[in-house]
Structure to design on (300 residues):
């Protein structure tokens, strides 16, 4: 399924001819500024839930992923991968190749009885695409409302991430104006409350206890995990639904009340005000912090 322009851009063709890897998003850009900020962690459950609400993606995760048995390890590995696409420099393209190798054998039958392969553009491009509307919508709460020019810049940078992941330009809408019809068509025709999406929103699941290096912390978690698990699952579900764009919520069949919206706005306002006051070592995740330090030092 083609979702964008039918031909590669001049830049992509030139890079292919020269055998160069695709470039990651530029330092100082919209993604560079926000992806490594700890506030972005709050938006990841929404993006992942929108991904797995696609019947084929949900089927692949249901059959092949370790998100049930090792949710913390899977989350950590996925986060590191995302940060490498943005801050990895020369390592970004290699991380994209690693992701493709990881998905090479993932195939089967989706919830509608259709054969799928995880690297088919129909699925793979959707997994990539979901990050843009979630980042745009949640950013209005956690960062600030961006201008139309910044929205276009963010989309151009997201296309660069797609190329790092091995997507061809013809498999991605090439402009914001082309993206929204594709997105709304996917919501109308493909997205549904899949088994995995429902599990990610459940508040009574048997979530494994996270590991810890410190024996004291491990003991504390062992004693308090039943209470912490319930609180965490409720908080995760709240943020997941809250930071999903309203049209995505409707496509998955999720309810959202005015009272919940008020709570989300209060929480988001606190995060938007307080996080920028933190020192850099607490505000930015390690890969982002190291990349920012290299940039200040004038090195790649």
């Amino acid at each position: 399924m083609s979702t964008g322009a039918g031909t590669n851009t001049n830049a992509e063709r030139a890079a292919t001819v020269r055998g160069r890897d695709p470039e990651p998003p530029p330092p100082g850009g919209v993604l560079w500024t926000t992806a490594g900020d700890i506030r972005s962690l709050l938006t990841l459950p929404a993006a992942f839930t929108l991904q797995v609400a696609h019947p084929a993606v949900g089927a692949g995760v249901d059959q092949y992923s370790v998100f049930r048995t090792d949710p913390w390890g899977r989350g950590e590995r996925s986060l590191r991968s995302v940060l490498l696409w943005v801050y990895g420099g020369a390592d970004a393209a290699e991380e994209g190749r690693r992701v493709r190798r990881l998905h090479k054998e993932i195939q089967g039958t989706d919830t509608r009885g259709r054969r799928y392969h995880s690297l088919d553009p129909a699925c793979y491009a959707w997994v990539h695409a979901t990050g843009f509307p979630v980042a745009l919508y949640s950013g209005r709460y956690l960062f600030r409302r961006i201008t139309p020019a910044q929205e276009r810049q963010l989309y151009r940078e997201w296309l660069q991430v797609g190329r790092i992941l091995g997507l061809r330009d013809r498999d991605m809408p090439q402009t914001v104006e082309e993206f929204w019809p594709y997105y709304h068509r996917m919501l109308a025709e493909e997205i549904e409350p899949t088994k995995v999406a429902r599990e990610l929103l459940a508040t009574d699941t048997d979530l494994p206890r996270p590991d810890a290096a410190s024996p004291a912390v491990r003991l504390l978690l062992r004693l308090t995990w039943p209470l912490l698990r319930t609180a965490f699952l409720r908080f995760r579900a709240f943020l997941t639904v809250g930071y999903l764009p309203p049209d995505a919520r409707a496509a998955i069949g999720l309810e959202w009340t005015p009272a919940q919206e008020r709570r989300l706005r209060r929480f988001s306002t606190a995060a938007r005000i307080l996080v920028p006051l933190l020192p850099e070592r607490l505000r930015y995740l390690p890969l982002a912090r190291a990349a920012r330090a290299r940039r200040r030092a004038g090195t790649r």
